[in-house]
Amino acid sequence: MFARTNLPEWAEFVVGGHEIRQGSFRESAEELARQKAIDPAAIERVKDDLDALDARVLPGFLAGSGSVVEKMADRWRDDVSSAKDMIDAIQADLRAFAQDNDLAHVIVVNLMSTEPVCSYFDNGILAQLSQEEREKRLEEWTRWEAFSQLLRSAAPPVVSASTLYAAAALELGCDFINFTPSLGATPPAFEELAKLKNARFMGNDGKTGETLMKSVLAPMFAHRNLNVMSWVGHNIFGNRDGVVLDDPRNKATKVASKNHLLTQILGYEPQTLVSIEYIKSLGDWKTAWDHIHFEGFLGTPMTLQFTWQGCDSLLAAPLVLDLARLTELARRKNFKGKMDFLACFFKSPIGVDEQGFVRQFEQLERWIHAMEE
Amino acid sequence: MFARTNLPEWAEFVVGGHEIRQGSFRESAEELARQKAIDPAAIERVKDDLDALDARVLPGFLAGSGSVVEKMADRWRDDVSSAKDMIDAIQADLRAFAQDNDLAHVIVVNLMSTEPVCSYFDNGILAQLSQEEREKRLEEWTRWEAFSQLLRSAAPPVVSASTLYAAAALELGCDFINFTPSLGATPPAFEELAKLKNARFMGNDGKTGETLMKSVLAPMFAHRNLNVMSWVGHNIFGNRDGVVLDDPRNKATKVASKNHLLTQILGYEPQTLVSIEYIKSLGDWKTAWDHIHFEGFLGTPMTLQFTWQGCDSLLAAPLVLDLARLTELARRKNFKGKMDFLACFFKSPIGVDEQGFVRQFEQLERWIHAMEE
Amino acid sequence: MFARTNLPEWAEFVVGGHEIRQGSFRESAEELARQKAIDPAAIERVKDDLDALDARVLPGFLAGSGSVVEKMADRWRDDVSSAKDMIDAIQADLRAFAQDNDLAHVIVVNLMSTEPVCSYFDNGILAQLSQEEREKRLEEWTRWEAFSQLLRSAAPPVVSASTLYAAAALELGCDFINFTPSLGATPPAFEELAKLKNARFMGNDGKTGETLMKSVLAPMFAHRNLNVMSWVGHNIFGNRDGVVLDDPRNKATKVASKNHLLTQILGYEPQTLVSIEYIKSLGDWKTAWDHIHFEGFLGTPMTLQFTWQGCDSLLAAPLVLDLARLTELARRKNFKGKMDFLACFFKSPIGVDEQGFVRQFEQLERWIHAMEE
Amino acid sequence: MFARTNLPEWAEFVVGGHEIRQGSFRESAEELARQKAIDPAAIERVKDDLDALDARVLPGFLAGSGSVVEKMADRWRDDVSSAKDMIDAIQADLRAFAQDNDLAHVIVVNLMSTEPVCSYFDNGILAQLSQEEREKRLEEWTRWEAFSQLLRSAAPPVVSASTLYAAAALELGCDFINFTPSLGATPPAFEELAKLKNARFMGNDGKTGETLMKSVLAPMFAHRNLNVMSWVGHNIFGNRDGVVLDDPRNKATKVASKNHLLTQILGYEPQTLVSIEYIKSLGDWKTAWDHIHFEGFLGTPMTLQFTWQGCDSLLAAPLVLDLARLTELARRKNFKGKMDFLACFFKSPIGVDEQGFVRQFEQLERWIHAMEE
User: According to the model, what pLDDT value does residue C70 have?
Assistant: First the structure.
């Protein structure tokens, strides 16, 4: 489909990043090979590239990442602690990365572990505040000037790392992609910022497995007027993402992201259950069992079950590559702001109502065709 | 979605038909209740309607229906044997039905068992014929005048009952819906006929379960560029349809209808296997297990399996009602010919390339919206 | 297999009981019929028996049953509150039941909802006690005299209803079957009591579905030396039992009962996960998905998954009938004490090491054959 | 369990064999590695052993192996064609193998592809013969002298390769294990021969996956008196065994072997369906979906489904090693004739009625314990 699209070639990209754990890319790849996710021979073929990549990775920041992530961390920047200083430090690294590698532009992709829900903007907590304080936070949520002041206040950051990186990137005119369900650039204030800086952003949470299936199957039930009574989804896997999501605080963010779309597609709220459990032996093999209980004509209950057995990393990785290439294409075509046409990549596309996968993909098709003209 | 559409109410319809078995609707409903497909109390509520319906059912015709169906038949019209006479007799019944019930219009829906492949137009057999004979059959296939002569020739019919009913209906200006994979009105000659007579038709083969799932899931693999290596589908069920499909000749027609769409959606031909087996204890509960073996990034094989447990009759029945109402709406809106906008109802929509379910449904949405204006 | 066994006929039994909810057996049966678990016609056939049964049901006692059960209760005995008084009241009802119905013997079967773990004997709490207090509790756990004093002390009961009923029954020489994972007659003190009173008892927790499957499948992995790395079991259902188990305190007792046997059969402890979730639409249809990850020769990981779709009540009911008949047979054959030969009926057979289902069943076969001689 | 058993060590064995295809063990192992069945590093570790093994493999015989196997064959012995000459040639190879490797004893294991049903002893064909001819064949089936004459007659062999190898081995006093469902040493005449020559034998058809599951699950339904209405099993896989079983003649032998045991365990004949299909992409990963439809108390139908995803070769290989070690142990303990105690290894244990896996395993346990004394 993209044959006629002038997509930037992958060879035009240089990859670098921040990381809070020691260890090399080669070790990570070998871990995946031991889990039967990738072929050992494939690692051998690209080992020099992996080593070169290690050299472009610097220590990152922990902020509101949750205690499981903090326990995993063994090399991170703890020399600065205020939001302002962290953003300054991130921006310094971004500038240096661009300069050292002679880059026209930098795209920041958030691939950190899922963060706990950001309590500062949490609805439950907002409800308990004074009218005045609530209005202040709403202003911060929606207007960049207010949000910016919040970030620059002297206190330790009230938002988590994902949002600090988003702010750092967009302020510099870099693009920002949030591949996780963390807050990132979700507040509407960031759309204002992106447009101001001629930058682009999108998220949240790459749609790779069970939720992809939901966004594919739910339209069938809607269009056939089959009433979904309950939709149960159990997810088990054993990679590092699984370790983090085993913490209830981090899991809450993820479950919310996996769950909302059914109601949006169906137009009513069936009973749902989403579990995510860490099962060590599975490694990267994310296995999901979904049980969908529905009724049709005359109310007889019927059942659809599916089991999805996929390699989490292998399903996510190509989406990250495609997002980078499409974001860069958007820049070259002078698009700025929130990239709604990338909705099909995300479990919770920011500010997009359409949750059905095929219709989201059609949106991408239309944009691509417009770009080709 | 259809709230603003002026769809004909079901109360405007009168149902009658042809049948080749004895036995009442109430008995059939009770059989379904014993199979746990419908609630016995529901039958009690409509028993008078069911009895009234029995009175509007007349004996039908057997022609190329296959030996299993012939064995089931215990009341059918055997007083005429040529295609011409059968068509005349069907038309007489249609006229009488309209007159007796004071109807403005009649829609004929083919709900007969799947017929064996029609050998007269079978590609394998065509290949063995003389050039002249092949050209004659192509002419018959595509032009109504030639097809009409074929039907009116003195010999016993070379096409099966589904096509005789289609011809009888459309010649009278009645509409024809083919809810089975039998030949019906598939030859392009019937489009010419329908337009000539201001009639409408569509088919083939109601998309109710496993194939519906295929048309929903295959676009996901295509849009995510996940290479489907094999797609295996095993169907087991125990209703009368299952008995008929247990005959390899009838089954061949059905399997072809369940299988083609993957290649059309994916753009390549994965290894496929479709089995349909009669398992008595299941009754109307059609159970399908599909195993989809695919590979993504770096070629690691992954698996999606699903099990569909649905009541065959309950999934099919509302589609038949909807097709009747939409066909009548089309008539009132002066549409004539082949109703492509109904593609989402069929496994093998006649002459329609799009096999993805959501895109087919969008076609219906667009037509409905156009009708509302 | 039991053709030659002189099992008591069901017609020899009279059924009565204690209940803490209002409502008739007919209403409960109709609820099951609405959930498609039983045939409405079957209820019609036995409606007089059901009504007669209602008349033999008296209000029961709540004690340590947990807040969910307390919320459900709408008719229970609240006129007495000490353990001693409750036991006296239960015994008065048992004596009256035997007398009114002219019975030779009474068998008490505990079918109450699962109770929270009994904290008085909980290992975690014991560990925090003084040496002296721990020894006192150990004495109570193992010797009837000490346990009896504990029950007769003036304070409100430290054990839950299941144990009060067990004590009341066995002291009277009635038999006691614990069909739930609650404490019941588990303390060894009850074996002493049963022998003293010529009574019989057994439990715990009827083995009806997923755990039955575990006790059938785990021996296969053990005997083929296939190393089970993880065994995940997700249970969903929507009957009243499901409501109670949705409370984490009650659920903890159940999960422990469903989980221990794998380690006993395999001889090592794989990672396990057991979830039990209330999904309203399923009603009595308990659905379990188990994912077993194992490795064989050369360490390649393989997978077995199963889905069990059974009616909880229909799987449990015949076990209760069989247990009653076998217990009465044991009495007639002068057996007294703990009935180890009934192990195959229970998830957690009291004091029995063998957890494999077939070997448990062989134990029953041997006992039956011995009884036949 | 076998810790106290003085089982022969694997190091005491030397492996050689006959093969009808070219290609090395290393190539076969690499093929398995490409199919993700084994780890490439494991092959590297034993490559010298694999090469040494190649040197001990000689061309084998084709006889009644079926056309698919014949098409695969690219190096076989075609210099002799009568049964007598083939047996002589096999025996010469066996003697040389023992002598060259200085072996005390040789065990022959049949690992050839499944052969078509042997028509000479097929019941359907027997029924069409004269009384005299039927009696002659019965004599051959049951008495070694008659079978021996049949083999020594001048005509081309009426039995297939598996039986020729069995005869060659047992006549020499070598042991014979039939790991396939082919005829092998099934005729009772071979038991006479084995005892005469102080040799041992057993078969048929290694029980590795779906049928193992059947022999584990069917006793549960029997012991719980759950009536199995239908048992459907679909097997898909893509190794060379799958290619052979795709031929209906070879498949018939296999399906019979996978199907009979349900009736034997349950005591009645549910409707069954066993399919075996070649799906190339699966390679060695044999996937089985079984759907078991059963009814319990009050006749409500319930369902158990399982999906087995195992590496065919890795499940079979350790059984072959164990069979060799146990057979050699039996020789050292002076056991001779048919080894019934090995029944748990086979789908169709010759002349053994017990088909339940756990009870078969107990038979092995009892024999092992007797050997330890």
Answer: 92
- Per DSSP bridges, beta strands C200-203 and D285-295 are unpaired
Burial string for A242-281 (b: 16+ CB within 10 Å, else e) reads bbbbebeebbebbbebbbbbbeebbeeebbbbbbbbbbeb
Q: What is the DSSP secondary-structure string of D339-362?
A: -GGGGGGBSS-TT-----HHHHHH
Q: What is the pLDDT of residue B258?
A: 72
Confidence (pLDDT) at D240: 83
Residue A97 corresponds to which tokens in the numbers above?
Answer: 């990365």
Q: Does B40 touch chain C (CB under 8 A)?
A: yes
Decide if B33 touches A, using CB distance below 8 A.
no
Q: Which is nearest to B349 in space by CA: B130, B179, B172?
A: B179
Chain A residues touching residue B300 (CB < 8 angstroms): 36-39, 311, 314
Q: Which residues of B touch D305 (CB under 8 A)?
A: 289, 307
- Check CB contact under 8 Å for C220 and D357: yes
Between CA B23 and CA C351 the distance in angstroms is 60
Q: Which residues of chain A have pLDDT under 70?
A: 373
Residues C250 and C244: beta-carbon distance below 8 Å: yes
Is a pLDDT exceeding 80 seen at residue B333? yes
Neighbours of chain A (3+ CB pairs under 8 A): B, C, D
Q: Which of B167, B315, B327 is nearest to B241 (CA)?
A: B315
Is A42 in Cβ contact with B300 (below 8 Å)? no
- A104-131 pLDDT, tens digit per residue, is 999 999 999 999 988 899 888 888 999 9
Q: Quick: pLDDT tens for A65-93.
A: 999 899 999 999 999 989 999 999 999 99
The reply to whether omega before D204 is within 30° of 0 (cis) is yes
Residue with tokens 């059974």: C310
With beta carbons less than 8 A apart as the criterion, state whether A73 and A59 touch.
Answer: no
SS3 percent helix, strand, coil of chain B, rounded to 5, is 50, 15, 35
Antiparallel, parallel or unpaired: β D285-295 and D301-311: antiparallel
How many CA atoms, within 13 angstroms, populate the side-chain half-sphere of residue B223? 26
CB contacts, 8 Å: A318 with chain B: 225, 296-297
Contact call for residues C156 and C81 (beta carbons, < 8 A): yes
- For residue D207, give the nearest of D348, D362, D359 by alpha carbon: D348
Mean pLDDT score, B24-34? 94
CB contact under 8 A, C212 and D224: yes
Cβ–Cβ pairs < 8 A, chains A and B? 117
Element (H, E) at C201: strand C200-203
Do C151 and C83 contact (CB within 8 A), yes or no? yes
Least confident of B88-92, B150-154, D282-286, D344-348: B150-154
Contact with chain D for residue C42, Cβ under 8 A = yes
The residue in chain A having the minimum alpha-carbon distance to the alpha carbon of residue C302 is A282
Helix, strand, coil share (%) of chain D residues, nearest 5: 50, 15, 35
Burial A299-323 (b: 16+ CB within 10 A, else e): ebbbbbbbbbbbbbbbbbbbbbebb
Picking from C281, C291, C301, the nearest residue to A236 by CB comes out as: C291
Place of tokens 């039996």: D330
Nearest neighbour of B36 by CB, restricted to C36, C41, C307: C36
Are A36 and D36 an interchain contact pair (Cβ–Cβ within 8 Å)? Answer: yes
pLDDT for the residue B251? 81
Angle between helices C161-171 and C189-196 (to 10 degrees): 30
To the nearest whole Å, the CA of D173 is away from the closest chain C CA by 30
Largest CA distance in chain B: 68
In this structure, the strands spanning B17-19 and D17-19 are unpaired
**Torsion-angle region of D30 (φ positive above 0: left; ψ -120 to 50: alpha; else: beta):** alpha
